[in-house]
């Protein structure tokens, strides 16, 4: 099969590699779509603590089952599926509580295991048993189904931040994750959604999701614009969807009483420390929330939101590229000239 192999940092090569072997209990999925995540770009540039090169990246996957191993009874050849990439142990305390994302024994398709930037991907027996394959209708668009993975992560963040009816939500960072946050916040009943970024080009792309207001915070004072748009009130929720520590520090000043600050981006490992005014947190009942990954059920819920048309997720797909052009896709993401880039291996 053809696969995009990260041979070394900043060097990805599309080449022929052996097809994955379907052992007892395994399933082989023909990849119809695999979207590029910011994590893929970070791994491309800087590596990942759990990844040994050479390696096949890609964890936002949908496709069709082409082979099943012995004793696989709940899936068959021809089934179309979305892939939930985290394979948790389902034995630890967190797994038993339903929070597979917190499992310390997790194997991730695209991290420890070969991912979806290839024509086929193997789902090991443990993944088949533990929920890595979620059936989708045969007429569902695979490009959209692949986006259930990042949308599930966004859903996790919004559940932790308790976004709901009447909230004013400010999203800092107008990339694909910020756009998903805007769409989901409106669907959950937010009254006003304000998107901020420092690049006009990013904000122009983000207008695909119809937030209520867009602010270039390098040209306008964001707090003043929030007060203008929100009848003199600050925000109920601020979501930091960019990896800039100063944004986290400055965001506290944007929050009203009982505001929630969601940190939805990993910071550079050599510059991850922030200074927080504890008095603002204390006296204004502020909640600081971190968010990473998603549970199986959040992935399923995200898939249903897409399938049922609650969120028109296709609006944030700006590029579809063949596997041979994956390096171009990574460059589009690096330059911020895209929202979601979807790789089509066939």
Automatic annotation (TrEMBL):
Q: Which domain of life is it from?
A: Bacteria
Q: Which InterPro entries match?
A: ADH-like_C (IPR013149), ADH-like_N (IPR013154), ADH_Zn_CS (IPR002328), ER (IPR020843), GroES-like_sf (IPR011032), NAD(P)-bd_dom_sf (IPR036291), Zn_alcohol_dh (IPR050129)
- List the cofactors: Zn(2+)
Kindly state which keywords UniProt assigns to this record, in alphabetical order. Metal-binding, Oxidoreductase, Zinc
Signal peptide start-end: none
Against Gene3D superfamilies, the record matches this protein to: Medium-chain alcohol dehydrogenases, catalytic domain, NAD(P)-binding Rossmann-like Domain
Residue span, Enoyl reductase (ER) domain: 4-343
Pfam families assigned: ADH_N, ADH_zinc_N
MF terms (GO), sorted A to Z? oxidoreductase activity; zinc ion binding
Family note:
Belongs to the zinc-containing alcohol dehydrogenase family.
Q: What is this protein called?
A: L-iditol 2-dehydrogenase
Where does this protein come from, organism-wise? Tepidimicrobium xylanilyticum
